[in-house]
Design goal:
The complex is a heterotrimer of chains A (447), B (784) and C (163).
Chain A lengths: L3 E3 L17 H6 L4 H8 L4 H10 L12 H6 L9 E6 L8 H8 L1 H15 L3 E6 L4 H16 L15 E6 L9 H8 L23 E5 H13 L1 H7 L7 E8 L5 E6 L2 E2 H7 L9 E5 L8 E2 H5 L2 E2 L1 H6 L8 E6 L4 H15 L5 H18 L7 H12 L7 H15 L1 H10 L6 H7 L13
Parallel strand pairs in A: 1-7, 2-3, 2-5, 3-4, 6-12
Antiparallel strand pairs in A: 6-7, 8-11, 9-10, 9-12
Chain B lengths: L1 E5 L2 E5 L5 H8 L22 E4 L6 E2 L10 E3 L3 H16 L15 H9 L22 E3 L9 H9 L6 E3 L6 E3 L13 H5 L5 E3 L12 E6 L8 E7 L2 E7 L12 H5 L14 E4 L2 E4 L2 H19 L4 E5 L5 H13 L5 E2 L23 H4 L4 E5 L3 H4 L1 H13 L2 E6 L9 E6 L5 H16 L14 H11 L6 E5 L1 H5 L3 H15 L2 E4 L8 H4 L15 H6 L4 E5 L3 H4 L3 H10 L2 E6 L4 H6 L2 E4 L8 E4 L5 E4 L12 H11 L10 H9 L28 E3 L15 H4 L9 E3 L1 H7 L6 E5 L5 E8 L7 E3 L18 E4 L1
Parallel strand pairs in B: 1-5, 15-16, 15-22, 17-18, 17-20, 18-19, 20-21, 22-23, 23-24, 27-31, 28-30
Antiparallel strand pairs in B: 1-2, 3-4, 3-5, 6-9, 7-8, 10-11, 11-12, 13-14, 13-24, 25-26, 29-30, 29-32
Chain C lengths: L9 H11 L11 H12 L4 H10 L4 H10 L11 E6 L2 H4 L3 H12 L5 E2 L5 E6 L11 E3 L3 E3 L4 H10 L2
Helix pairs in contact in C: 1-2, 2-3, 3-4
The chains are: A alpha/beta (447), B alpha/beta (784), C alpha+beta (163).
Bound molecules: flavin mononucleotide, iron/sulfur cluster and FE2/S2 (inorganic) cluster (FES).
The site of iron/sulfur cluster has 15 residues of chain A, from helix 15 and helix 17.
Chain lengths: 447, 784, 163
């Protein structure tokens, strides 16, 4: 059972009953589908819906933080065939919020997608669900059946002249399918190799048709925004950083789990909610937005608030809201080696700099970690990342480069020590103890 | 139009143009690997990164659309840094084995590494090794050299029409490969060799035989189908080592069929005839040219004297040059024979004397790509005219509706709108239905001849598609099978009528390199002396005392090989001018004169669109081989035929063509007053005979690598399920096939769901099936 | 055409048909991922003949299906044990015992990553992020069953359950 805690529960209101509160009747009891009903009954225009979302300053929760309302407004009005697609291919290391959203409250995402489809004029949608979470995929299929049976999906929804149907597409193990165009290729039954953009999905998306694609959390927020109004939602957070956000806190904290907090909540507060540092050890570093985001040393992150702008100012990215907490027992070379291996393993292989560079990075970090580093290796790593960044079709090459650059930048002495002494600054026994089996301190929070 | 600036030079380009296209217009080279103008844009190699003003990062020139006011810098520091970076990545896992690589000297990676690479990389890890793949007899692999540009994959999927290659696995493990255990079998596979920018895919027949810089190059023209693809023939010490496409957007674009690319191996075949030979007392002797020519002139003069000129027949290969055919017909006519023909596989000659002009494509080749409605009638299009099929494949993707009327349902790898598959005997009737339906849809009254015709749903669908097109945008194309059909004239008349009703184009897909040239050379009976003469079929049916055979192997190249063999065997004197010898020739001929194949002579082919394409010899004649035009000229002199004073092949061409126009005149597919013959009379099973792509002429038949290709599999008896069941035969069983006479052949039965009821499909032009006689003969089939 | 579709059971074909129905009629290929999963569930892994059958059933080139089968991690192109255990060792999990869990399984089964026990029962794989880092250590049994908080006792229990 994941641990949940929240201040100002919004998206997570339905999570309190754990696995017992996900079904349609529970959702309806919480006021679910009321917004869809209201929109259809009052014949709200598409533009009115989009305007409300724009007002909320809801930014995409998948990583890039692009304003959702603006994205919807890019959809061509006239096109006869359009799609909405939800991105639940949550594969960014450290991120596990979308899984819980679909596990505890799948209908909020479904309702959000229906409203989105209404707003952009789509008749069909897909939710792309991460391969490793089969039980969640099954639950989502069940939720779809419930929604269909209740008339929320299908032809002429709730007697209106709006029709929309939604299907689940199950992934099967490829991080790159989280990238939106890789995801679309994957739904089309191909390898998930990202497409060159432009054209963007709003013009050329699924099956070459205009497509709106958003993260699960983005869609899940929609019913709440429509319920409280864009303005009120915005005011929960900070200007330009509307609403609440789910943070998946993992690593060396006492209570790893998902925490919903208003945008702009101090990192220290979030850390406290997660039970503080495990074993009372000292915070060393935090990756604040999923493994692709640059790492920040303890002192820097402790001064940040958790929102797009503050984290960006500190030199990293809020990304997907995956907060990976590392204490003093962590060897930063080893940590980087594992992340570099991940990007090397997950590069889709089409772009030369990513295909060749991700392996190069991994091999050099690997040799430093294994006592075979050379004096010139840090320069080499920086040069290779320079040669990768901004030169590929999708951002995976950048994602592979950011950790390398930031780890070296902030923890250079540790790398130098490795190279010079052919061993780790942090005693291996200490490392092992710090990253050993750890039972979270209690099934705390609302769960 | 948008206006952009590249390296300070302004230009206007069409909306939607990419930066690389714009740069190309300016003559500015931007390095690239994955980009190819004929393929979809992958933008994966990242070699073409350039700086674009106001863009935060370098942009791929191949995929970035030019916008108004855009300023591009291809050589700025940002651009060069990016290009160098990509080059380094490309090279870290490349074996750098240029000294032993066939691509050496023409490798884009090698060239660019010199211009854009650093001298040494800091990459010191072990290089990746990728296992090689077996792609079949034509394309060799060195997959460790592959840079994953995916051009080859896109070629198979987009140009050849079926994805035979893919990139499996991912990231650094990505590997280009066919499906496990499969080879690449498209008839266009050789183009992969040209497309691969490195030495990962190279020519198997050429492998390690020469370094590219040792080769001399000559432009030439393909001697195979009617397209007349432009070639670069490469030789080393006067031996043809390799054939490559010479790009010509109006003809072959940048492609070649495998037949065109690899048939050169036949030029070096052990069956080359290299010395004149004369049969004396049943034994063959190699002799000097003057002895042989003397012998020939005496033999022909004797026959003409004793039996009259009409006792001589001339069978000319439609792959012979214009000059050769022109001199051959002139020689025969000089001897008093009007029996000369190059239309060896034709069976219906009832249009002779009624044609308004020379049958041709009816349009320019390039215009095929602009048709918006197409009906292909009686054509094994993908194998008979692979590059025309390729054009239609691309058109169909752009929205052109292509329909087919045929007696076989081979997958053309073209998205078809409608199709009618009927037994050969029904082809004219279904064609008549299409005409009738079209006239009805157009609201035009059909003439009496069509009164009894009932329109089938298939014919209706085809008509509907044709009528729905743009005014003047439709094309009706008659393929080889239609031209070889026993009611070819009816099909022609109906095709012409259909095109007229649509206001569209009507044409013949020329079977051979000189299918138009043969008419122009007057290598058909009845065109000179007002004397009817005998056509190819008639002069075999009604055997002659003597034959002059030029470049053909009548037992394989004629509509009825068995009959041809019989006629030749009975003749008193058969004079063969050929680059090759065969056992059959040794049996029936009296004299064998070694004449040049296309690569060893100058000459002219007039392609199916009427384009005059002359070429020079690429190599010296092998042994004592001589260009056929010279041999014929000497024979003309020896036989005292007037007007044989030619000093060069150009002289011959000038006499045949006048002042050598770009395109010949007199092309016209119209036909006067033919009686439509819609009646189908068959007894027994009908035969559908295709001429397999690698058996169509004497050169390709002798190209060993092509003979190992999947397209060269031994002929089988292909039948649909119903017929197999009726005969009590299972696929794979052997069946005995007869054609009325005493001869039978034994073949394996094969299931082909595309064969119509009551029809057996058996390939022609093959030694295994020659005994079956006429390509259109009725058959008996029984289980062995 | 009866292209040896009997290589897959009627139930499997039925399931594939249900997946096909999720997509527009001219987009059958969209169901290839699901179809390969269904085929793998039935066969235990994906022999090339099975991939070819799936490709032909969906009207795609066999190599296009192979591209898919070789791109996504959880397709098995080689036989695996009855139980395929995939342990996530990515950084977030590793910080909370992911590597320890993998080591523990290795020791219990006497095999390393990408190996199968001699009795053919277990295959061990190293996994990438499964989107469940809060539940570390996590492991996946036969691609579909996720096990959270896999401490030694839980691992023992799981291994005992598998028979
Ligand atoms: C390598 C890579 C992986 C990504 N993975 C995910 C993911 O797992 N989930 C997700 O929602 N977005 C992911 N994204 C971002 C998506 O491309 C896309 O921006 C997002 O789905 C848009 O939704 P949003 O605007 O609601 O955030 C990824 C991007 C990249 C470049
Ligand atoms: S950057 Fe890497 S993952 Fe992204 S498209 Fe290019 S090769 Fe694939
Ligand atoms: S040529 Fe532009 S990316 Fe390859």
């Amino acid at each position: 059972m994941a641990l949940i805690d929240t201040i100002n529960p919004l998206l997570t209101t339905g999570w309190s009953k754990g696995d017992a509160g996900w079904s349609l009747k529970d959702y309806e009891a919480r006021g679910g589908y009321a917004q869809l009903k209201r929109i259809l009954a009052s014949k709200m225009t598409q533009d009115e819906v989009i305007a409300e979302v724009k007002k909320s300053a809801l930014r995409g929760r998948g990583g890039a933080g692009f304003p959702a309302g603006l994205k919807w407004s890019f959809m061509p009005k006239a096109a006869p065939e359009k799609y909405v697609v939800c991105n639940t291919d949550e594969g960014e290391p450290g991120t596990f919020k979308d899984r819980d959203l679909l596990r505890y409250d799948p209908h909020s995402t479904i309702e959000g997608m229906i409203i989105a489809a209404y707003a952009v004029g789509a008749k069909r949608g897909y939710n792309y669900i991460h391969g490793e979470i089969f039980d969640i995929y099954q639950r989502f299929e069940e939720a779809l059946d419930q929604a269909r049976a209740a008339g929320y999906l299908g032809e002429r929804i709730l007697g209106s002249d709006f029709s929309f149907d939604l299907f689940a597409h199950h992934g099967w193990g490829a991080y790159i399918c989280g990238e939106e165009t890789g995801l679309l290729e994957s739904i089309e039954g191909k390898k998930g190799q990202p497409r060159y953009k432009p054209p963007f999905p709003a013009n050329f998306g699924l099956y070459g048709r205009p497509t709106t694609i958003n993260n699960t959390e983005t869609f899940a927020a929609i019913p709440f925004i429509m319920g409280m109004g864009g303005e009120a939602y915005l005011n929960l957070g900070k200007p330009n950083n509307g609403g609440t956000k789910l943070f998946s806190v993992s690593g060396h904290v006492n209570r790893p789990g998902n925490y919903e907090v208003p945008m702009g909540t101090p990192f220290a507060k979030l850390l406290e909610m997660a039970g503080g540092m495990r074993g009372g050890r000292k915070l060393k570093a935090v990756i604040p937005g999923g493994s692709s985001a640059p790492v920040l040393p303890a002192d820097v992150i402790m001064d940040c608030t958790m929102d797009y702008d503050s984290i960006a100012k500190a030199g990293s990215m809020l990304g997907s809201g995956a907060v990976i907490v590392m204490d003093e027992t962590v060897c930063m070379v080893k940590a980087l080696e594992r992340l570099s291996y991940f990007y090397f393993e997950e590069s889709c292989g089409q772009c030369t700099p990513c295909r060749e560079g991700s392996g190069w990075l991994y091999r050099v970090v690997h040799r430093i970690e294994h006592g075979e580093g050379r004096a010139e290796d840090l320069d080499l790593l920086n040069r290779v990342t320079d040669n990768m960044m901004g030169k590929t079709i999708c951002a995976l090459a950048d994602a592979a480069a950011f950790p390398v650059r930031s780890f070296i930048k902030h923890f250079k002495s540790e790398f130098e020590y490795h190279i010079e002494h052919k061993k780790c600054l942090v005693d291996p026994e200490v490392q092992r103890a710090g990253s050993g089996f750890f039972r979270a301190s209690s099934a705390a929070g609302a769960a | 139009m948008v206006e952009i600036e590249i390296d300070g030079k302004a230009l206007q380009v069409a909306d939607g143009s990419t930066i690389i296209e714009a740069a190309h217009k300016l003559g500015t080279y931007i390095p690239h690997f994955c980009y190819h103008k004929k393929l979809s844009i992958a933008a994966n190699c990242r070699m073409c990164l350039v700086q674009v003003e106001k863009a935060p990062k370098p942009m791929p020139a191949c995929a970035t659309i030019a916008t108004n006011g855009m300023k591009v810098f291809t050589h700025s520091e940002q651009a060069i840094t990016a290009q160098k970076a990509v080059m380094e990545f490309l090279l870290i896992n490349h074996p750098l084995d240029c000294p032993i690589c066939d691509q050496g000297g023409e490798c884009q990676l090698q060239d660019l590494a010199v211009g854009y690479g650093e001298s040494a990389s800091k990459y010191e890890e072990e290089k990746r090794v990728v296992p090689d793949k077996d792609l079949g007899p034509l394309v060799s692999t060195d997959m460790t050299r592959c840079i994953n540009c995916t051009r080859c994959i896109r070629f198979t999927a987009e140009i050849a029409g079926f994805m035979e290659l893919g990139q499996s696995y991912r990231g650094e493990h990505a590997e280009v490969m066919p499906f496990i255990g499969k080879t690449v079998d498209t008839e266009l596979s050789g183009n992969l060799i040209d497309l691969c920018p490195v030495g990962a895919l190279t020519s198997k027949p050429f492998r390690f035989s020469a370094r590219t810089w040792e080769l001399s190059r000559r432009k030439s023209v393909s001697p195979h189908d009617g397209l007349g693809s432009n070639l670069i023939v490469q030789t080393k010490h006067d031996k043809v080592m390799r054939v490559l496409p010479l790009e010509n957007e109006d003809i072959n674009e940048c492609w070649l069929t495998d037949k065109e690319r690899f048939s050169y191996q036949g030029l070096n075949s052990a069956e080359r005839l290299t010395k004149p030979m004369v049969k004396q007392g049943g034994a063959w002797q190699e002799v000097d040219w003057n002895v042989a020519l003397d012998y020939v002139s005496h033999a022909l003069r004797d026959v003409a004297k004793t039996h009259g000129g009409e006792a001589i027949g001339g069978l000319l290969s439609p792959h012979a040059t214009l000059e050769e055919m022109y001199l051959a017909q002139k020689l025969l006519r000089g001897l008093g024979s009007e029996n000369v023909d190059f239309r060896l596989r034709q069976t219906d000659f009832s249009a002779d004397g009624k044609r308004k002009g020379t049958p041709w494509l009816g349009m320019k080749i390039a215009a095929i790509s602009r048709l918006d409605r197409v009906l292909v009638v009686g054509s094994f299009l993908r194998k008979d005219h692979p590059l025309i099929a390729q054009r239609l494949r691309q058109s169909a993707k752009r929205g052109t509706q292509v329909s087919v009327l045929h007696s076989a349902d081979d997958d053309l790898l073209i998205k078809l709108t409608a199709r009618a598959i009927a037994a050969p005997s029904q082809l004219p009737a279904v064609m008549a239905q299409i005409v009738k339906a079209t006239l009805q849809l157009k609201g035009v009254a059909a003439d009496a001849a069509l009164a009894g015709v009932t329109v089938s749903t298939e014919a209706q669908a085809i008509a509907q598609s044709l009528v729905s097109g743009n005014e003047g945008g439709s094309g009706i194309l008659l393929g080889n099978f239609a031209q070889q059909h026993p009611q070819a004239a009816t099909l022609q008349a109906l095709g012409h009528q259909l095109a007229s009703a649509l206001g569209g184009k009507f044409g013949f897909l020329g079977e051979a390199a000189n299918s138009v040239g043969g008419y122009v050379a007057k290598a058909v009976p009845g065109t000179v002396n007002g004397n009817a003469g005998l056509n190819a079929a008639a002069m075999l049916k009604d055997p002659r005392q003597a034959y002059v055979v030029l470049g053909a192997e009548p037992e394989l190249d004629c509509a009825d090989g068995a009959q041809a063999l019989a006629a030749l065997s009975k003749a008193a004197a058969v004079v063969v001018l050929s680059p090759f010898k065969s056992q059959a020739m040794l049996d029936y001929a009296a004299v064998l004169l070694p004449v040049s194949p296309f690569s060893e002579t100058s000459g002219t082919f007039i392609n199916t669109e009427g384009r005059v394409q002359s070429f020079y010899a690429a190599a010296k004649p092998l042994g004592e081989t001589r260009p056929a035009w010279k041999v014929l000229r000497v024979l003309g002199n020896l036989l005292d035929v007037a007007g044989f004073e030619f000093n060069s092949s150009e002289d011959v061409r000038a006499e045949a063509l006048g002042d050598t126009p770009g395109f010949v005149s007199g092309l016209d597919n119209g036909i006067n007053a033919v009686m439509l013959n819609l009646m189908a009379s068959t007894n027994g099973l009908e035969r559908v005979a295709d001429v397999p792509i690698h058996f169509a002429d004497s050169l390709v038949r002798r190209a060993p690598a092509l003979q190992q290709a999947r397209d060269s599999a031994a002929p089988t008896a292909r039948m649909n399920k119903a017929l197999l069941a009726k005969l009590g035969v299972a696929a794979g069983d052997h069946v005995r096939v007869g054609a009325g006479g005493t001869a039978t052949v034994t073949l394996a039965a094969e299931l082909d769901v595309g064969v119509p009821d009551g029809v057996v499909r058996i390939a022609a032009a093959h030694a295994d099936t020659c005994a079956l006689g006429a390509m259109s003969a009725a058959l008996t089939v029984e289980k062995v | 055409m009866n292209k040896q579709y009997d290589m897959l059971s009627p139930e499997a074909l039925g399931k594939i048909d249900r997946e096909v129905a999720k997509y527009p009629a001219d987009q059958k290929q969209s169901a290839v991922m699901a179809a390969l999963v269904i085929a793998q569930d039935e066969k235990g892994w994906l022999p090339k003949e099975t991939i070819a059958v799936v490709a032909s059933y969906l009207g795609m080139a066999p190599i296009a299906a192979y591209e898919v089968a070789s791109f996504y991690n959880m397709y098995d192109l080689h036989p695996v044990g009855k139980y395929k255990l995939t342990v996530c060792t990515n950084l977030p999990c590793a910080l909370s015992g992911g590597v320890h869990a993998a080591d523990y399984v290795k020791e219990k089964l006497g095999i390393d990553f990408n190996q199968t026990t001699p009795d053919g029962k277990f295959t061990l794989k190293e996994g990438e992020c499964m989107g469940a880092c809060g539940d570390a250590p996590v492991l996946l049994v036969n691609n579909k069953r996720m096990c959270s908080f896999m401490f030694p006792e839980e691992i023992d229990k799981l291994l005992a359950e598998c028979n």
